[in-house]
Amino acid sequence: MRDRTEIDTLIDLMARLPGLGPRSARRAVLHLIRKRALLLTPLADAMTAVAASARECVNCGNVGTADVCAICADETRSNGLLCVVEDVADLWAMERSNVFKGRYHVLGGTLSALDSIGPDELRIPQLVRRVEDEAISEVILALNATVDGQTTAHYIADQLETRVALTSLAQGVPIGGELDYLDDGTITAALNARRRI
Amino acid sequence: MRDRTEIDTLIDLMARLPGLGPRSARRAVLHLIRKRALLLTPLADAMTAVAASARECVNCGNVGTADVCAICADETRSNGLLCVVEDVADLWAMERSNVFKGRYHVLGGTLSALDSIGPDELRIPQLVRRVEDEAISEVILALNATVDGQTTAHYIADQLETRVALTSLAQGVPIGGELDYLDDGTITAALNARRRI
Ligand SMILES: [Zn+2]
Ligand SMILES: [Zn+2]
């Protein structure tokens, strides 16, 4: 048998990452061993640093390295606009578009009867409290266009509609999107929301 | 802007792993932060351990945690059979089939005029020396069924044919197929039906 030691432990752990299976984990570990100084050691150090420093923002649920995240702490951002997203990956996607300059609120998932996820399992009570306490003029519900995402958006809208203006992202054909590759629901939504040129 | 700190460093490094791009690296890092105790810290520790201990076997080119790998050090394995593979991933694939009980020799690639890889860039001189020095009765050329793999097999066969019996894996390895993509049964069948060259 080959040496079942640290190398196999590392392969087993790598295989538990989303997007990697046993085979790609083995490939990745061989690559890491070949690039020990350039990649393996820096990666080990970065993971150790993140394990020590990463935390959830007490205010919005974003991930950062302080109790209050850099976005919540940034005084140049607008307090009036609050963008509600399902998870931190969605927040990062919004930030990459580089167009939104307000604040965020990360729910941590969507309502799901099937998985017994109710409002209290998400950051919905905290959202209602922020709308009450902060000077928020508009809440943008940037939830995914899935059944659970839209169910969650409707629930939040019910909670907040008397307190604040509510908007959602426009639905339509993505930039560069080809009609032939879009699902019927997207085409229907884009057609229903058609604009005069 | 969000906190460009250890978390972003970790994402950048993860995106350099084979099979992961920027998007899957971000997903993986969020997953790691959520599973800090169960996955992130163990992974950081395993990487640190592998960075400290992993080395190439001086005899066969396998990767292990000692100067001579566990396969070369295993006295229960047959010394007479030597299986030549392109890289360590192929050796691991052979081992998973659990049918070969001889020794290995890892070339570290294939001959390639295009990439200026000649015999001396591979572990071919060491292979010739092992055949001269060790009591090897048969060399199994388990190279990939690619053009470069087969060119390399022919070159090695020319070097060794007067000194030792040479075999190759049987048909059953698909044309253009790489060992590391094959299921264990295919490898077993191909090994059992190996032919004299
Ligand atoms: Zn925050
Ligand atoms: Zn060895």
Automatic annotation (TrEMBL), chains A, B:
The keyword DNA repair applies. Keywords: DNA damage, DNA recombination, DNA repair, Metal-binding, Zinc, Zinc-finger. The keyword Metal-binding applies. SUPFAM superfamilies: Recombination protein RecR. GO terms for biological process: DNA recombination; DNA repair. Residues 80-174 form the Toprim domain. PROSITE patterns: TOPRIM. It comes from the Bacteria. May play a role in DNA repair. It seems to be involved in an RecBC-independent recombinational process of DNA repair. It may act with RecF and RecO. Belongs to the RecR family. This is Recombination protein RecR. It comes from Salipiger aestuarii. The gene is recR.
